[in-house]
Amino acid sequence: MPVLTGMARAREVIPGMEEGLFLHAGPPVTWERMCGPMRGAVIGGLLYEGRAKSVAEAEKLAASGEIALAPCHEHQAVGPMAGIITPSMPVFIVENEAYGNRAFCTLNEGLGRVLRYGAYGTEVIEKLSWMEGTLFPVLQRALQDAGRIDLKHLIAQALHMGDEVHNRNRAATSLLYRTLAPAIAGSGFDTAAIKSVLDFINGNDHFFLNLSMPAAKATLDAARGSPTAAC
Question: What is the CATH number of the domain that holds 165?
Answer without folding.
Answer: 3.90.1710.10
